[in-house]
Write a structure and sequence with these properties.
single chain, alpha/beta, seven-stranded mixed sheet, two-stranded antiparallel ribbon, WH_DNA-bd_sf, D-Maltodextrin-Binding Protein, domain 2, 13 helices, transcription, about 300 residues, LysR family transcriptional regulator ArgP
Amino acid sequence: MKLDYKLIEALAWVAKLASFEKAAQKLFITQSAVSQRIKQLEERIGEPLLIRATPPQLTARGQRLICHLQQVQLLEQELLTELDIFEGENPFLPINISINADSLATWFLPCIESLLASHRILLSIQVEDELRALQLLKRGDVAGCISCQSTPLPGCKTHYLGDIHYYCVASPQFIARYFKDGFTLANTQKAPAIIFNQFDTLHEDFLIQFFGEPQVNYPTHLIPSSDAFLAVVENSIAYALIPHMQVSSAIETGRLINLTPQHYETRSLYWHTWHTPSQAIKLLTKSLKKKAHLFLINKK
C-alpha cells in the first residue's frame, strides 16, 4: 500500500485547526470532502486516526502519520531550494522548532547566529517549557525541540547539550525587606517570588529540596518572560531562580545577591529531533552541539 499524502494532509489540517469546517476552507474543498478523505485514510490504515470529539483529537497512529507528513514536506522543500525551484519567489527554508523561554533568552541564538548568516533558513519558534515541547515533536508540529527528558521518543533521537544552573537571587533592598534574618521557610511564605506560568515547577522544586519539606506555600507573580524576570528582581519587586549566565555579572558587582550560594536548581537540556532529520535540522544540530558548551555547564 502506498500512502496518499492528500488524505494525510486533510487529517493534518483538521488536527491543526481543530475543525473540519476550517480545514475545508484551507484546502478549498467541502467539509464533506474532508470527512471522506479522512474516512478513506482510516479504511486504508485499518483503524481510527481521529477521535471525533470537540475539538477533534488524533490517535497515536494519526499523530505518527502527521509527523511523517511533516518530514516529507520539509525534505521536499529542501530539495526545491537545492534545485533553485522556489514557490512564491521564496528561497528560504522554514524550520519549525520548540524551545523553552530561558534558552531563547540566553544561549540558543548565539549558538546558531553563524548558521543563519550562512544558510537560507527561516526559524519558526514555539516557546514551550522543556516538558511540553516534546508533545509538539510527537504530534509532528515541530522538527526539533529542547527538553529536559533524556530518553528519545519513538522514531526520534536526542543529544545532550549541557546544564543550566538556576541561582536563587534577590536585590540587597529586597533582602533587607524580606530576608533580613535569613532565607528561612517562614520568610519565603511572605516574600513574593516569580514563576513563568502555572506549569512552571522550578521554584517549588527548589524550595522543597532546599528545606526538605514535602510541600511549600509561597506568594508568586506569574510573568511569562525570561528578560522580565531579571528586571523584576533588579527592581526589588520579587526574588527568583534565574539562569547562571543571566545573573553572574550582577552577582559579581553586588547588584544581586545569591541567597543560597551552595545550592542551585539544575536543568539538563537535550536536543530532540526526528530519527531521520532533514539537512537543515542536521546543520542546526551540528551548530548546537558545537557551541552549546560555551554557555551551558557540561556535567560529563
